[in-house]
Amino acid sequence: MTSTATDRPNRGRQLSRPRRENRNGLILTAPTLVVVLFASILPMILVVVFAFSEIRLVDIPLLGSQPIDWTLDNFTRALRNPSFWNALGTTLLYSTLTMVGSVGVGLVLALALRRPFRGRGIVRALLLVPYVLPLIAAATIWQTMLNPQYGLVNSFGREFLGWETAIGFLNTSRYEVFGIEVPLSLLVVVLFEIWTSAPLSFLFITARLQGVAPGIEEAAALDGANGFQIITRIVLPQLKGVILLLCLLRFIWTFQSFSEIYLLTEGAGGTQVMALKVYTELVTRADIGSAAAYGLLMSVVLIALLAVYVALSRRKVDVE
Questions:
Q1: CB neighbours of residue 229 within 10 Å
Q2: Residue pLDDT, tens place only, 237-282
Q3: 171 CB neighbour count, 10 Å cutoff
Q4: Which pTM does this prediction carry?
Q5: Which of 149, 193, 261, 286 is 20 to 30 A (C-alpha) from 115?
C-alpha cells in the first residue's frame, strides 16, 4: 500500500500519450522553426521596419539606442520617381518574355525528343549543360562572345553579314533592326536567361510526357488524326498542368532575378530591373530605408500578380 500511495503523485505528473507526442513533435521541429525565424521571418520584419523609417548605413550602430521615426517618405519618393516605374516596366517585360521563352523552348525540345532514336541520351545530356553550368562561367562566355572588340558574334557579323561597325550588345538600349527599334541589351539578357533556364522546363515536361499513355495516340492515329492534331488535341491538354506550374515558377524567379543581369550588364543598356534598383539604393546610395521600400513594393507587386493568377485559375476551374 505504501508503494502504491507513493506512486500516485508520479502518475499524476505523467503526461498523456497525445501530450507526449505533441511535446516530442515540438522538440523535433524546434530547430527548423528557429532557422525559419532567423532566416525568413525576422529579416522580413526588419525590411518592413526599415521601409517605414529614415535610416542609412551610417545609422546602423545607433539602432536600438534611438526611437524610430516612422514615415511614408520612402514610399512617396519611390512612387514619384520615374526610375521606379521604368524598372518595374522593365522587370515585367523581362519576366514575361523569359517565362514564355523558357517554357516554350523547353516544350519544343521535349516534344522533339520524345521519340527514341540513336544518341537521344547524349542529346538530352548536352541540353542540360547550360542549366548545370556555373552562372559566372556562363556569363563570362556570353560576355566574351558579345564583346564589340574581339567577340565571336561581332567578328562573324563584320566578316560575313556586312556589319560596318561593331554592336555593343550589352550596353545598347535601342537598336534599329529592319527599321524597327528593339531593346537590344534587354533582349540579350532575356535570351541568356532562356538559354540557362529552358533545360529545367525541358526536364519537367519530359517527365510528364513519360506518363502520357501511348495507346491513346495510337488510337487517334488509327482514327485518322495527323501528327499536329495528336499533339494539339491529345498531348498538350495533358501537359497543361505542368506548363502552368512552370509559367508560375518561372515568372516568380525571373521577377526577382539579380545575378544574371548584374553579371552581364550591371543594369546598363536599359536592363535595370527592380532587384538592381534595390541594390543601387542600398549599395550606391547607402539608403537602407529607400532600398527596403523598393523591396517591399516589389513584393507587393509580385503578390498582386500572383493573386490575379490564382483568381483566374480558380475561375477557369469553376467554368470547366
A1: 13
A2: 888 888 988 988 899 899 988 999 999 998 888 899 999 988 988 8
A3: 17
A4: 0.83
A5: 193
